[in-house]
Amino acid sequence: MALVAVQTSPFSGYTVNRFSGVQKIQIHRIVCICAQLVARMAAMFTCWLGCCGDGGSGHIPLKEMPTVQLDTHHMGTDVVIVKSGRRICGTGGCLANAPLHQNKSYFEFKIQSTGVWGLGVATQKVNLNQVPMGRDTNSLVLRHDGSVYHNNEEKNRLPANSLPQEGDIVGITYDHVELNLYLNGKNMHCPASGIRGTVYPVVYERCDIVYGSVDDLVLR
């Protein structure tokens, strides 16, 4: 059995960590730039209403943006989500709970240690028990070996000298047509396309068997 830890916060990210033979993946900061700008504008407008408005009941109350986290309703059968949607355990994939509706979305993942992982975008029809992803029309993912797959076809590949390593940050932009990859803020000029429909950030990993009891696995 293996373990993956996931953390969400404003802006997106994904982290892989390994300790005591256990694989750990942290996902943090999954959010779109446009969504963050909308949230800031909403906060400024709310402040204006409070400071300059009459405080009456005539204005429309603004709703807070939902917290972006892993969605327990859209995960593999061998995946367990803990820590309020911030950690994923087991083998398989999981979607984020917020779709990418903006004209151009961005999220990023921080790799803490190497392993078998993948990240990208997927529809809700994706098979989250199938690892690696990218085998059907419902997912477009970067795999840990640098290949980008969709519909069981290699769409592109990172240069051999630019594979994500421990401590690297992988960024993804998606404009509903093309997915682009960034490594530590640098455009890798590795576009890929083909997926259609409403998509969500997706992450998966494959855990090797670790001998010992569940009590031996420590979440950090």
> Unreliable segments (pLDDT under 50, ≥5 consecutive)?
1-55, 209-220
Shape: globular
Beta fraction: 35-45%
Helical run tally: 1
Domain SPRY: 102-215
InterPro entries: B30.2/SPRY_sf, ConA-like_dom_sf, SPRY_dom, SPRYD7
Pfam families: SPRY (PF00622)
Protein name: SPRY domain-containing protein 7b isoform X2
Task: From the structure above, extract its key features.
220 residues, mainly beta, Jelly Rolls, 7-stranded antiparallel sheet, 5-stranded antiparallel sheet, 36% strand, globular, disordered N terminus, disordered C terminus, SPRY domain-containing protein 7b isoform X2, ConA-like_dom_sf, B30.2/SPRY_sf, SPRY_dom
Provide structural commentary.
It comes from Cottoperca gobio. This is SPRY domain-containing protein 7b isoform X2. Residues 102-215 form the SPRY domain. It holds the Pfam family SPRY. The protein is mainly β and 220 residues long. Helix content is 9%, strand content 36%. The protein has a single domain (14-210), classed as Jelly Rolls, CATH 2.60.120. It has a seven-stranded antiparallel sheet, with no helix packed on it. Strands 7, 12, 13, 14 and 15 form a five-stranded antiparallel sheet that branches. A hairpin with a 3-residue loop joins strand 9 (139-143) and strand 10 (147-150). 39% of the residues are buried.
